[in-house]
Automatic annotation (TrEMBL), chains A, B:
Organism: Rhodoferax ferrireducens
Family matches, as InterPro entries: Acyl_CoA_acyltransferase (IPR016181), GNAT_dom (IPR000182), Mito_N-acetyltransferase (IPR052742)
Pfam family name, one: Acetyltransf_1
Residues annotated as domain N-acetyltransferase: 2-163
Highest taxon of the lineage: Bacteria
Protein name (record): Ribosomal protein S18 acetylase RimI-like enzyme
Length: 164, 164
């Protein structure tokens, strides 16, 4: 059981702890493993159109995601999201719920599609989850991700038209 | 005959005139047709790693391009470029020369690949030119570009590994 709501400033310490630990693994997200707190605050809170958190009933942070335009101007009808789930909350459907929530939010904001630009091909759990939620693999980028254990690996572009 | 060199501040008035006229057509680049000069200066001069110009021997601006990282951190070994050729300079090989130049520059900076994120599928001249210069179509984004005459059209993701 959890709820998803908009970010508020008091969420930041828990989000930073989660993002810092997650990005340090260097196997899923492009953010440099040694990214500073200020850089990640900019990327996760200041630049996106909206930031969200998934919380347990006791307020514990289970996950967080961001929603933004994927391109400016004439590509601004396509949204982009990034999701992070707390290690202790894996397997509870948090990523799935955040992705469904993000699609509703994107539709409400007028977006016509959602694009993921850099899904690490070796992250098969994520690829399967996004496919299950209606996203198609529309592109494959050769050796576009510098995996911290595996070296250069392919990344996928995934896409879903949101309909109305 | 033309030369390609780094941007200098005195180039801006001619570049802005070219970019403003180009983006107003709304058929090739994502920048909104009504983008302000300040917004385009940020996008074309401040945010990229480097900005270049192609000039005729008399100094006239024939084209301009930008070079940047396509992703942060673990995707930062992939470069991204955007090129604009002056209408009066079409057909002289300016785009081709700028693309070749950008690949040399990107290699020299240590990039391993170059990615174009949003090549408008109806811009067949550009698609064929990039293919001729070694780029592959690695993805197709359904209706990802809002063409000002044709409505929503597909966009292509194009990619080239730069080798060494």
């Amino acid at each position: 059981m959890f709820s998803i709501r908009r970010y508020q400033d008091s969420d930041w310490p828990a989000i930073w702890a989660l993002l810092h630990a997650t990005f340090q693994t260097g196997d899923t997200y492009a953010y440099a493993p040694d990214s500073s707190e200020a850089a990640i605050h900019t990327a996760w809170v200041e630049l996106p159109m909206a930031t969200y958190v998934a919380c347990a009933p006791d307020g514990q942070l289970l996950g967080t995601y961001v929603l933004k335009q994927n391109q400016p101007g004439l590509g601004a009808h396509v949204s982009n999201c990034g999701y992070v789930v707390a290690p202790a909350a894996q397997g509870q459907g948090v990523a799935s719920a955040m992705c469904e929530h993000s699609q509703q939010e994107a539709r409400a904001m007028g977006f016509l599609a959602m694009q993921f630009n850099l899904v690490v091909a070796t992250n098969q759990r994520a690829v399967r989850l996004w496919q299950h939620l209606g996203f198609a693999v529309v592109g494959r980028l050769p050796r576009a991700f510098r995996h911290q254990r595996l070296g250069l690996v392919d990344a996928l572009v995934m896409y879903k038209e949101l309909g109305v």
